[in-house]
Design brief:
Two copies of one chain form a homodimer.
Chain A (H helix, E strand, L loop, with lengths): L1 E6 L3 E7 L5 E8 L6 H18 L9 E6 L2 E3 L4 E4 L6 E3 L1 H9 L3 E5 H12 L6 E7 L3 E7 L2 E2 L31 H4 L1 H14 L5 H8 L6 H7 L3 H25 L3 E5 L7 H14 L9 E4 L6 H11 L1
Parallel strand pairs in A: 1-4, 4-8, 9-12, 12-13
Antiparallel strand pairs in A: 1-2, 2-3, 5-6, 6-7, 9-10, 10-11
């Protein structure tokens, strides 16, 4: 039996995960990032213990804990080298939690953990596998021959920071023109707001008002009701997503590529236009093609992936 | 003892290569691509035999032949699945040459072969290694944990067809905005000609006249003599090269990245501005950095790499 923990900027989510990667029970607590690393580490250990005991296990019955955390993770030493969302710098999380609970702890970058979870969920048959997560930012994870590609310094697979438009839109990383600056939900919301400003009669206004805010769904919902301005937003956004995916396919030619994150809930409204753009921009015209699909595990990918990496 | 063959659109170049990857002798014949695959295959076999015998070996003394060829190569079956420069389609080159000479033959994509050659030349110590070739097009090869990353369909590592500018300059592949359309020598020549048209007093005109043509060197030579228009071309071109390299570093975070191809002869005039741009655009700010350098083997990389892959 394993425990997977998804350490996020807002919440710490944990799940009791069996050998096959199924979540048997889950629980969460607020992260309280401002409290510093010791309090967060202690909360993670408590949460792991509680979820085990609530479900009839002692913590010593748990084979290992896997943690997915944002930032650059030295997976060999179990250290968060650097994280932006949660102010960690060289924190030996694995050693500390392992010390508190006396079981093995493995820590992994959160997008990598989610990628590994989705890889297992697809059957783990692909020789190479790419996971893209479209959320607040754009993250990625790459599995080649069953192994996460982390880069020599553990900072690799930052697929959201590939260029889409040299000297284009400002990105949170300090550069301009990163794919993330066009294909994240944050970017979609910005694109939606701009179209709303330019189209006062669009039903996007009504939809946003009902929802209480402009969200990543606003344009997709309005477009499905025939709103022209919203269709324009969706067309452009799916072009951004698809063009970036095509770029990544030209690098890896992965057997499978899975799209996750908030926007992936749009399903075929996202997938079909993306597939069309990729089929146009894929350099490979004569060999078998990458299979592109929507994530299966959605929010559970991080917990399951972290647990399954710890299982290894 | 091995033989490496670099099958190009213009010439077939071959070398007798020892265990350590040193070329002991080399020779070449015109490709004559229009003659079709059987004539080319027969010439490759003859060239291999001749280079062995001229140097005191029988062809049966050769352990294996390695061939680097343009296009998509099914390395497991030894088949050129598709090639653009040389009109091959599903040609079982390895089997045919092996049949003619009765020794093992391995065939590999030419950029991959060159990448592998440069990887060995750097000491083969890097956990991950990326090779970029700036020539007529922009090619690439990626070595992870000592193994070429080919993609599930052998069509991977087309790094020149990552996006630099969505909907930008037309690329020979049929898309717009590929890195190759900005960073190839072909693109540099186009950029140079444009600047020459706009600057009739630039010394680029004089340099091109002396050389008999505008080449990839024209702007670099003029810039080194202080020509402002040429400096503008070099600054922009090195930005294109550097920005694309930064994108690729954000994907792989390779331990080493080597720049080859015609323009790599510019050495520090290319390398130093590229390093500056990469240091600005590299997403990784806190972990060790990718070492970027100029290719060591230059034109021999393909022959040596192909031979060393055959050695494996």
């Amino acid at each position: 039996m394993f425990i997977g923990i998804d350490l996020g900027g807002t919440n710490i989510a944990a799940g009791l995960v069996d050998e096959s990667g199924k979540i048997l029970a889950s629980d969460s607590v607020p992260t309280g990032a401002e409290r510093g690393s010791d309090a967060i580490i202690s909360d993670m250990a408590d949460l792991a213990k509680r979820i085990a005991e609530k479900n009839g296990y002692k913590i010593s019955d748990i084979d290992a804990i896997g943690i997915g955390a944002p930032g650059t993770i030295d997976t060999d030493r179990g250290v968060v080298a650097y994280s932006n969302n949660i102010p960690f710098r060289n924190v030996p999380i694995a050693e500390k939690i392992s010390g508190l609970l006396n079981i093995p702890v493995h820590i992994e970058n959160d997008a990598n953990a989610a990628a590994y979870g989705e890889y297992i969920a697809t059957g783990a048959k692909a020789k190479s596998f790419v996971f893209i997560t479209l959320g607040t930012g754009v993250g990625g994870g790459v599995v080649i021959d069953g192994k996460l590609m982390r880069g020599f310094n553990y900072a690799g697979a930052e697929l959201g920071h590939c260029l889409l438009v040299l000297n284009g839109e400002a990105c949170t990383c300090g550069n301009n023109g990163c794919w993330e600056a066009y294909a994240s939900v944050t970017a979609l919301i910005r694109q939606t707001k701009k179209a709303m400003d330019e189209n006062p009669n669009s039903i996007m206004h009504e939809i946003a008002e009902k929802e209480g805010k402009v969200s990543g769904k606003t344009a997709f919902v309005a477009a499905s009701r025939g709103d022209e301005a919203a269709k324009g937003v969706v067309d452009k956004y799916t072009e951004y997503v698809g063009a970036g995916i095509a770029s990544i396919i030209n690098v890896f030619q992965p057997e499978e590529l899975v799209i996750g994150g908030g926007i992936s809930k749009e399903g075929d409204n996202l997938l079909i236009p993306v597939q069309k753009i990729v089929s146009r921009m894929d350099y490979n015209k004569y060999m078998p093609k990458t299979k592109i699909s929507i994530a299966k595990l959605y929010n559970d990918a991080g917990i399951i992936g972290a647990a399954l990496i710890a299982r290894k």
